[in-house]
Design a protein that fits this description.
Elements (H helix, E strand, L loop, with lengths): L1 H8 L2 H19 L3 H23 L30 H32 L4 H8 L1
């Protein structure tokens, strides 16, 4: 357990992920303003995307397109997978970005509708008006 924590602390990407995630979570929990909650949600989503990018990074790897000695026209039929990056995390990251933007757009539209109805963005005031 200690080794895992020590190895994670040696990677600044994981530290940035944890800081962004906790910062966004703190903003979502501590602020009653709905816009600030959305900003916190955006930070949490961005930190998850950052984690996906961190996991998908591979040193000295290239795009997963056969080239050079691995190409179909080469005489060598062996492919070294260590030379290529895995495209799945990149595709998941792109999908997560699209979902993030769509979620934020719908959330902002809902917050605008709530503001027009209750004349407030404060969660506590809105809950008082609902009683």
């Amino acid at each position: 357990m200690i080794e895992h924590i020590t190895s994670a602390l040696q990677r600044p990407n994981f530290i940035a992920f944890v800081i962004l995630f906790l910062w966004g979570l703190f903003i979502m929990v501590s602020h009653p303003n709905l816009i600030k909650k959305l900003i916190g949600l955006y930070l949490v989503q961005t930190s998850i995307i950052f984690l996906l990018v961190t996991f998908s990074a591979k040193k000295d790897a290239t795009v997963p397109i056969l080239q050079g000695d691995d190409s179909l026209v080469s005489a060598v039929n062996e492919i070294d997978p260590n030379e290529y990056a895995n495209p799945l995390p990149h595709v998941l990251t792109l999908t997560a970005i699209v979902v993030q933007v769509a979620t934020l757009g719908v959330s902002l539209a809902l917050v605008a509708a709530i503001y027009r109805t209750y004349d407030s963005l404060d969660e506590n005031e809105i809950l008082e008006k609902l009683k």
